[in-house]
Amino acid sequence: MIEEEFHKLCDSHLLIIINDVIKDYQKNVITRVSFEGYNLNVLIKCDDEQIKVSSNYKKMQTYVSSNKKEYVMIYDNHSHKIFDVKEYLYQKNNKSLVKKNMINHDLDILEKEYSYSFYINDKCFDINLLDYHNNFDEETFLNYCLSKYILSINNIDEMYLLIVNSNDITGCKLEIIDKSNDDILLMCFKIILKYHYVTAIYLMINKLF
Questions:
Q1: What is the pLDDT along the chain (209 residues), one digit of tens a residue?
Q2: What is the phi/psi pair of residue 192, to 5°?
Q3: Strand ranges inside 37-102, DSSP E
Protein backbone atom coordinates (compact mmCIF):
# COMPACT_ATOMS: atom_id res chain seq x y z
CA MET A 1 0.00 0.00 0.00
CA ILE A 2 2.78 2.44 0.95
CA GLU A 3 4.80 1.58 -2.15
CA GLU A 4 1.71 2.13 -4.35
CA GLU A 5 1.24 5.64 -2.88
CA PHE A 6 4.95 6.25 -3.29
CA HIS A 7 4.90 5.51 -7.03
CA LYS A 8 1.77 7.63 -7.52
CA LEU A 9 3.32 10.68 -5.86
CA CYS A 10 6.94 10.53 -7.04
CA ASP A 11 7.94 11.90 -10.42
CA SER A 12 10.67 10.31 -12.52
CA HIS A 13 13.36 12.76 -11.40
CA LEU A 14 12.70 12.07 -7.72
CA LEU A 15 12.83 8.35 -8.41
CA ILE A 16 16.27 8.82 -9.97
CA ILE A 17 17.45 10.66 -6.84
CA ILE A 18 16.07 7.96 -4.52
CA ASN A 19 17.67 5.20 -6.59
CA ASP A 20 20.99 7.04 -6.37
CA VAL A 21 20.66 7.34 -2.59
CA ILE A 22 19.84 3.67 -1.95
CA LYS A 23 22.08 2.04 -4.59
CA ASP A 24 24.78 0.93 -2.11
CA TYR A 25 22.41 -0.68 0.40
CA GLN A 26 21.33 -4.32 0.40
CA LYS A 27 17.81 -4.02 1.84
CA ASN A 28 15.56 -1.01 1.25
CA VAL A 29 12.01 -0.61 2.56
CA ILE A 30 9.78 2.47 2.19
CA THR A 31 8.16 2.98 5.59
CA ARG A 32 6.25 6.24 5.12
CA VAL A 33 5.17 8.74 2.45
CA SER A 34 3.68 12.09 3.49
CA PHE A 35 3.11 15.71 2.45
CA GLU A 36 4.08 18.64 4.70
CA GLY A 37 3.49 22.01 3.07
CA TYR A 38 5.57 22.06 -0.11
CA ASN A 39 7.51 18.94 0.92
CA LEU A 40 6.94 15.39 -0.22
CA ASN A 41 8.65 13.25 2.42
CA VAL A 42 9.74 9.66 1.89
CA LEU A 43 11.14 7.63 4.79
CA ILE A 44 13.27 4.66 3.83
CA LYS A 45 14.78 1.94 5.99
CA CYS A 46 18.12 1.10 4.32
CA ASP A 47 19.77 -1.84 6.07
CA ASP A 48 20.17 -0.46 9.63
CA GLU A 49 19.95 3.19 8.58
CA GLN A 50 16.96 5.55 8.55
CA ILE A 51 16.97 7.86 5.52
CA LYS A 52 14.60 10.76 4.86
CA VAL A 53 14.15 12.11 1.33
CA SER A 54 12.30 15.42 1.30
CA SER A 55 11.45 17.02 -2.06
CA ASN A 56 10.51 20.70 -1.86
CA TYR A 57 8.43 21.73 -4.88
CA LYS A 58 8.72 25.46 -4.09
CA LYS A 59 12.52 25.61 -3.78
CA MET A 60 12.91 22.89 -6.45
CA GLN A 61 15.39 21.00 -4.28
CA THR A 62 15.49 17.57 -2.67
CA TYR A 63 17.08 17.08 0.75
CA VAL A 64 18.44 13.69 1.85
CA SER A 65 19.28 13.15 5.52
CA SER A 66 20.26 10.12 7.56
CA ASN A 67 20.46 9.23 11.21
CA LYS A 68 24.05 8.08 10.56
CA LYS A 69 25.43 11.05 8.60
CA GLU A 70 26.24 14.49 9.92
CA TYR A 71 25.31 16.28 6.71
CA VAL A 72 22.29 16.71 4.43
CA MET A 73 22.70 16.10 0.69
CA ILE A 74 20.91 18.58 -1.57
CA TYR A 75 19.88 17.69 -5.13
CA ASP A 76 18.53 20.01 -7.82
CA ASN A 77 14.96 19.16 -8.91
CA HIS A 78 15.36 20.77 -12.33
CA SER A 79 15.51 17.80 -14.67
CA HIS A 80 17.67 19.63 -17.24
CA LYS A 81 20.49 20.04 -14.70
CA ILE A 82 23.45 17.64 -14.53
CA PHE A 83 22.33 14.92 -12.17
CA ASP A 84 24.47 14.82 -9.03
CA VAL A 85 24.51 16.11 -5.47
CA LYS A 86 24.36 19.90 -5.67
CA GLU A 87 25.42 20.73 -2.11
CA TYR A 88 26.17 19.22 1.29
CA LEU A 89 24.74 20.98 4.34
CA TYR A 90 26.42 20.70 7.76
CA GLN A 91 24.73 22.22 10.81
CA LYS A 92 25.80 22.53 14.42
CA ASN A 93 24.49 24.95 17.07
CA ASN A 94 24.64 28.50 15.62
CA LYS A 95 26.63 27.46 12.53
CA SER A 96 25.79 26.13 9.09
CA LEU A 97 28.25 25.24 6.36
CA VAL A 98 27.12 24.63 2.80
CA LYS A 99 29.68 22.77 0.72
CA LYS A 100 29.09 23.06 -3.02
CA ASN A 101 29.76 19.90 -5.00
CA MET A 102 32.46 20.88 -7.48
CA ILE A 103 32.17 18.56 -10.50
CA ASN A 104 35.40 18.39 -12.49
CA HIS A 105 34.95 16.73 -15.87
CA ASP A 106 38.53 17.49 -16.95
CA LEU A 107 40.64 14.70 -15.45
CA ASP A 108 43.86 16.38 -16.61
CA ILE A 109 43.39 19.27 -14.16
CA LEU A 110 45.33 18.42 -11.01
CA GLU A 111 44.31 21.31 -8.75
CA LYS A 112 41.25 20.84 -6.55
CA GLU A 113 38.49 23.41 -6.20
CA TYR A 114 36.45 23.97 -3.04
CA SER A 115 33.50 26.33 -2.53
CA TYR A 116 31.55 26.98 0.70
CA SER A 117 29.03 29.30 2.28
CA PHE A 118 29.55 29.59 6.03
CA TYR A 119 26.70 30.94 8.18
CA ILE A 120 27.32 31.91 11.79
CA ASN A 121 24.86 33.98 13.83
CA ASP A 122 23.74 36.70 11.38
CA LYS A 123 26.87 36.57 9.20
CA CYS A 124 27.51 34.74 5.93
CA PHE A 125 30.88 34.22 4.26
CA ASP A 126 31.49 32.76 0.81
CA ILE A 127 34.79 30.87 0.67
CA ASN A 128 36.36 29.77 -2.61
CA LEU A 129 39.65 27.90 -2.60
CA LEU A 130 41.80 26.49 -5.38
CA ASP A 131 44.40 24.03 -4.11
CA TYR A 132 47.32 23.72 -6.54
CA HIS A 133 49.39 21.28 -4.44
CA ASN A 134 46.63 19.01 -3.10
CA ASN A 135 47.45 19.84 0.53
CA PHE A 136 44.11 21.21 1.72
CA ASP A 137 42.52 18.95 4.35
CA GLU A 138 38.78 19.51 4.01
CA GLU A 139 37.79 17.40 7.02
CA THR A 140 40.00 19.49 9.32
CA PHE A 141 38.52 22.69 7.88
CA LEU A 142 34.97 21.41 8.48
CA ASN A 143 35.81 20.47 12.07
CA TYR A 144 37.22 23.94 12.72
CA CYS A 145 34.16 25.70 11.27
CA LEU A 146 31.69 23.60 13.24
CA SER A 147 33.69 23.51 16.47
CA LYS A 148 31.69 24.31 19.59
CA TYR A 149 34.46 26.72 20.60
CA ILE A 150 33.80 28.98 17.58
CA LEU A 151 31.05 31.26 18.87
CA SER A 152 31.27 34.08 16.34
CA ILE A 153 33.08 35.21 13.20
CA ASN A 154 32.60 38.93 12.68
CA ASN A 155 34.66 39.85 9.60
CA ILE A 156 36.86 38.53 6.79
CA ASP A 157 39.99 38.83 8.94
CA GLU A 158 38.55 36.46 11.55
CA MET A 159 37.36 34.11 8.81
CA TYR A 160 40.85 34.12 7.31
CA LEU A 161 42.40 33.27 10.69
CA LEU A 162 40.06 30.32 11.10
CA ILE A 163 41.06 28.96 7.69
CA VAL A 164 44.83 29.35 8.18
CA ASN A 165 44.59 27.80 11.64
CA SER A 166 42.96 24.74 10.08
CA ASN A 167 45.25 24.40 7.04
CA ASP A 168 48.45 25.53 5.39
CA ILE A 169 47.19 27.51 2.38
CA THR A 170 50.62 28.46 1.02
CA GLY A 171 49.89 26.55 -2.20
CA CYS A 172 46.33 27.86 -2.62
CA LYS A 173 44.33 30.67 -4.14
CA LEU A 174 41.80 31.88 -1.57
CA GLU A 175 38.81 34.19 -1.83
CA ILE A 176 36.66 35.21 1.15
CA ILE A 177 33.57 37.38 0.69
CA ASP A 178 31.57 38.83 3.57
CA LYS A 179 28.02 38.77 2.16
CA SER A 180 26.68 41.37 4.59
CA ASN A 181 28.82 44.24 3.25
CA ASP A 182 30.71 42.86 0.23
CA ASP A 183 34.07 42.89 1.99
CA ILE A 184 36.53 40.72 0.10
CA LEU A 185 39.92 39.14 0.63
CA LEU A 186 41.62 37.59 -2.40
CA MET A 187 45.07 36.06 -2.21
CA CYS A 188 47.21 33.58 -4.09
CA PHE A 189 50.19 31.78 -2.52
CA LYS A 190 49.63 34.08 0.50
CA ILE A 191 50.14 37.20 -1.64
CA ILE A 192 47.21 39.63 -1.27
CA LEU A 193 45.66 40.48 -4.64
CA LYS A 194 42.57 42.30 -3.37
CA TYR A 195 41.50 43.47 0.07
CA HIS A 196 38.37 45.48 0.84
CA TYR A 197 37.31 45.72 4.46
CA VAL A 198 34.69 48.38 5.22
CA THR A 199 34.98 48.13 9.02
CA ALA A 200 38.76 48.50 8.92
CA ILE A 201 38.46 51.62 6.73
CA TYR A 202 35.80 53.07 9.06
CA LEU A 203 38.02 52.55 12.13
CA MET A 204 40.97 54.15 10.34
CA ILE A 205 38.92 57.24 9.46
CA ASN A 206 37.74 57.55 13.07
CA LYS A 207 41.34 57.48 14.31
CA LEU A 208 42.35 60.21 11.86
CA PHE A 209 39.53 62.51 12.94
A1: 566 666 666 667 788 888 889 999 999 998 998 888 889 999 999 999 999 999 998 888 999 999 999 999 999 887 665 567 899 999 999 999 999 987 665 555 678 999 999 999 999 999 999 999 888 999 999 999 999 999 999 999 999 999 999 999 999 999 999 998 889 999 999 899 999 887 654 444 444 43
A2: -75, 125
A3: 39-46, 49-56, 61-66, 71-76, 85-92, 95-100
